Q: What sequence folds into this?
């Protein structure tokens, strides 16, 4: 049996072109005393325990006023705009869990 047609191989490139991303930084705080702090947990194991311990330390050392906890459904999915907006509107600083 002889193959007489030309077989075509299509190669797809899944990469995206680089994007220029600019994001203004939030102003630096002069301290945490009396401020509220948010914790955004990425749902990795024991992150909640770490944040609870960190909250206790921040309350003792810096006398933070309030804490807001938010959780992403999984580490690989970004936080929703609603979660980010809620944190931005309710706290002055946020601690984000990004890794193990």
A:
């Amino acid at each position: 049996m002889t193959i007489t047609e030309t077989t075509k191989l299509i190669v797809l490139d899944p990469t995206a072109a680089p994007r220029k991303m600019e994001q203004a930084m939030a102003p630096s705080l002069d301290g945490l005393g009396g401020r509220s702090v948010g914790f955004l947990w990425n749902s990795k194991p024991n992150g909640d325990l770490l944040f609870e311990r960190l909250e206790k330390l921040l309350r003792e050392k810096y006398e933070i006023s309030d804490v807001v906890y938010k959780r992403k459904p999984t580490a690989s999915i970004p936080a929703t705009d609603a979660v980010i907006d809620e944190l931005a509107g309710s706290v002055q600083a946020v601690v984000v869990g990004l890794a193990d």
